[in-house]
Amino acid sequence: MASAATMATTESDSGHTALAPREYTRPHIQRLPLAQADVDTARTFTRQCLRGWQFADPGFASEVTLVVSELVNNAFQHAEVPEELRLIRRPGGVLVEVDDIGPGRPVPLPPSAERGHGRGLAIVDALACRWTVRVRGSGRKTVRAALGHPGTAAAV
């Protein structure tokens, strides 16, 4: 399996590939194809991106990494084909996007002490400012979660 560092590509909306962390005024995107990855690779990739973007708050990094873990795990568990993880650095925080191919939409399950699964979307809902699902046709969908960095007033 390739490492997260070798599998990732970097781009910005303007097409530039090397922005210093203090210059992030436009979205900056890191991509991880999921075809040859797993949840652990996605977590490592996320931690590397957050360090590179100089997010120093360990609590925020843990929250973003947990949301990534839950969304990528859902794609592997419930989709026919997990496609891609995108982390998008924006002023004020990070957007997490996971693309997959498969029927249905993610739906949070009601809390249950008996069930040993089904808590992932409740965790995402608790940690993210908002999360959405965009269905794109042919069974493709994107699950997106926005996380605001503590101490910023900008919208994610």
From TrEMBL:
| InterPro entries the record matches | Anti-sigma-factor_SerPK, HATPase_C_sf, HATPase_dom
What's a single GO MF annotation on this record? ATP binding
Record keywords: Kinase included?
A: yes
Record carries keyword Nucleotide-binding: yes
Keyword annotations? ATP-binding, Kinase, Nucleotide-binding, Serine/threonine-protein kinase, Transferase
Domain (Histidine kinase/HSP90-like ATPase): residue spans on this chain: 33-145
Could you tell me the superkingdom of the organism this chain comes from? Bacteria
Which PANTHER family does the entry mention?
ANTI-SIGMA-F FACTOR RSBW, ANTI-SIGMA-F FACTOR RSBW-RELATED
What's the protein here called? ATP-binding protein
Q: Which organism is it from?
A: Streptomyces daliensis
